[in-house]
């Protein structure tokens, strides 16, 4: 099938399909006319990619996982590549969550302090005043 049909059958635009191909996630042969020709399993592969992207995995992570993917959802077999990639991604997500939690706590503290101070009058800033560090 050509890229337009694959796009129609999966709901993924052709630009994204070409990106998946460039990332090594999707394979296409070239016809004599130079058009991409996708095999019968391309629809399943695109659906697997979309599910894995939805889980927050990068295209690099997905490249490691796809050999372990079975079915549309997909179910992932316990391949060593799979486990290492998923553990790495989980660590990155945990780091991001910790950073967000610290940012949230700091912002909440600023809001609490501003509410405690209420509507006190402050002298207006003069552009010549040094900015506090």
UniProtKB/TrEMBL annotation:
Organism: Streptomyces purpurascens
Pfam families linked: MerR_1
PROSITE patterns: HTH_MERR_1, HTH_MERR_2
Keyword match Transcription: no
Keyword DNA-binding: yes
Protein's name according to its UniProt entry: MerR family transcriptional regulator
Record-linked SMART domains: HTH_MERR (SM00422)
InterPro entries: DNA-bd_dom_put_sf, MerR-type_HTH_dom, MerR_fam
Parts of the chain that traverse the membrane: none
Chain ranges of the HTH merR-type domain: 1-68
Alphabetical UniProt keywords: DNA-binding
């Amino acid at each position: 099938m050509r890229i337009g049909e694959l796009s129609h059958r999966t709901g993924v635009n052709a630009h994204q399909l070409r990106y998946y191909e460039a990332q090594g996630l999707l394979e296409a042969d070239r016809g004599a006319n130079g058009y991409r020709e996708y095999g019968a399993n391309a629809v399943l592969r695109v659906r697997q990619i979309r599910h894995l992207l939805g889980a927050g995995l990068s295209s690099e992570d997905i490249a490691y996982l796809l050999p372990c993917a079975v079915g549309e959802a997909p179910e992932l077999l316990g391949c060593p590549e799979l486990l290492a990639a998923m553990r790495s991604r989980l660590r990155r997500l945990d780091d991001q969550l910790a950073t967000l939690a610290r940012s949230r706590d700091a912002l909440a503290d600023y809001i609490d302090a501003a509410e405690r101070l209420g509507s006190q009058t402050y002298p207006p800033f003069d552009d010549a005043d040094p900015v506090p560090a």
